[in-house]
Amino acid sequence: MDQYHWRAGTLIPKVKLRGHVRSAHRSGHYAAFLRPDARIPTRRYAGTVDRAEIVEWLLEGDPSVAWQTQRDLAGADETVWRPTRQLVSSQGWGRRLVDQQQSSGRWAGGLYQPKWTSTTYTLLLLRRLGLPPSDPAGIRGSAVLLDEADWVEGGVSYWSGRLLAERCVNGMVLSIASWFDTDDHRIDSIAELLVRSAMADGGWNCRDHLGDTHSSFHTTISVLEGLAQWRRRTQRDDADMAIVSGQEFLLAHRLFRSHRTGAVVSPHFLRFSFPPRWHYDVLRCLDHFQDTGAAKDDRAADALDVVADRRRSDGRWPIGPRYSGEVYFRMEEGRRPGRWNSLRALRVLDWWNGGGQGG
Question: From CA 215, how far away is CA 207, in angstroms rounded?
Fold first, then answer.
């Protein structure tokens, strides 16, 4: 990729959060941070970082990172990044996951379980990696998720004896089936279910069948990602108001605070994991905002501070924690900087500063 000329520049020095949020929360060291409207404790470091150097480092990674870097950070033309995206099928992490597909079209023998090797979670990760929409493994796996599900309310259910169109799962499946070239009218049915099942506060909750009336951060972000992908695929505007309302729910909470007390809802929202699985965090949320080209809103400023504060002195971001469960392999390990978090954080900051690609 040295044939391309990357525009040199610098990153504005950001602040870094002192300590580890989870351990700080347990020790009470950041008790003030968890109080309503408290500022995040930070310290500044001196110096600048060469943006071109970080971009080149990202380009040296797996094709799944490289093609998104070309598109989102380097501003490369589609004729450049699309061939790189094609490599996800045949090289690196994408190829390793595709090779695990069984003759049935499933992964690990299950539709939703086991976590994180089942068909749903493997395809969800392959979507994030950018496995080409035309890839046969992705198309076949998406069809399996639709064909072998029980259908309730126009959505999928994967629990025998418990017929429930759980909103979070349907959001994830919608994002998968909308990414891959799956020609099936039932995809629209899932989108329509999610649009009409939005709660009064604008978001969604997988426990709505139990009487919960306040939306869940976790469910809302999965549904928003699914509806956004469906809208991109179909060019239909049916979900536009639902997407805006869901984003407004998150903004009303400043992306991580209680709307009643202003306190941090969970310190886990401030820790960035890739892949995020079904879990919410502020980087995942902001990445959705930049992906949809959302307008900047001052209520997201605190969350942007959290992202900037996580940056290392070398201008990169740490790999972040992992969620327990089975995996086929680990993409990144150790206390080294992580390409996934660095890529996502940089494109979020680009979007906020007016230089993001969007869409």
Answer: 9
State pLDDT tens for residues 187-243: 999 999 999 999 999 999 999 999 999 999 999 999 999 999 999 999 999 999 999
Q: Where are the domains of the chain?
A: 52-90
Task: Catalogue the long-range contacts made by 81-90 (C-beta closer than 8 Å, 24 or more residues apart).
Answer: 85/130, 85/132, 86/132, 87/63, 88/63, 88/64, 88/129, 88/130, 88/131, 88/132, 89/131, 89/132, 89/135, 89/137
Distance between first and last Cα of the chain: 24
Nearest to 160 by CA among 115, 112, 118: 112
pLDDT of amino acid 105: 98
Q: How far is CA 47 from CA 50, 52, 272, 348, in A?
A: 10, 16, 24, 21
Q: Which two tokens stand for residue 15?
A: 């602040």
Beta-carbon-side half-sphere exposure of residue 236 (alpha carbons within 13 Å): 14
**What are the percentages of helix, strand and coil residues in the chain, rounded to 5?**
45, 5, 45
